[in-house]
Amino acid sequence: MGRLFAIEIIYRGIYQKTLARNISRAIVLAAHKDGKPGISFGRYGDSPERNGIPAKSFAIVATDDMTLEEGMAKYEPKEVDITIAVDDTLCKGVESWAWYGLQPVNKLLKPGGTLIVTSREQPDKIIEMAHRKESPYQLAIIKGTPSFSGSWRSSKVRPAFPVCGCTKRTTPTCAFSAPLPKSCPRCSVSKQSRQPSSMSGKIPSKPLRRRGPTSGPPRSQCSRARAIR
Question: Which structural domain, as residue segments, surrounds residue 58?
Answer without folding.
Answer: 4-186
